[in-house]
Amino acid sequence: MNGPSGYAPPTRRRLLGVVTGLGVGLSAGCLGNDSTDTGDNSTDTGNPDDVAPPDCAESRRPNPPDPEPEESVSPFDYPSLPTDQSEDALASYVESFERAYVGNEWLEAYGEELVGFGLLTEDRTVTQTGPPAVVEIEYQTSEVTGLDDRDKASGTSGHLIASYAIWSETVRRAVAERGGSQPPDARKTGDIVVCPAGDESE
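-> structure tokens emitted (202 positions)
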């Protein structure tokens, strides 16, 4: 199982980053859903690139079971599609969805050993109001594994950027490392994470 967004999760030897350096606080069983938003940068370009929603039979997104230990991270709930199509509502939806997606991805990878998770938002931008609406979010994640204090390890991801294309009933997600040669564009590529036909776990 890959780690966040297709990138291999670090082994315990590689989980050497200091989570507190991100400015987020840890607590047993959760690492705050509180993220630090550095502001919304919105560029309303109208809908210069109308793209029809992709056909889909199902969506694919991680849906891990609830671990037994109380100190383990619980699965994250995915938000419902926003009825409010304002830029702030769209950006907030994407931020919540990305936190749930990546958090559940880590939970699938580590199971009950995942005792802390947080997503630090660095920037979020509405580049197109639709249809489809296109929203980008830049972020890092922090993770803590190990039920036993002697085995605890913490680390942070690299800087990631996720692109979301949001239609009335369908959502497609694409993600890449920030600074890559090909920024993600969910209008053209990526995984269907919301589909009117139904949702399936990965």
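Helices lie at 87-110.
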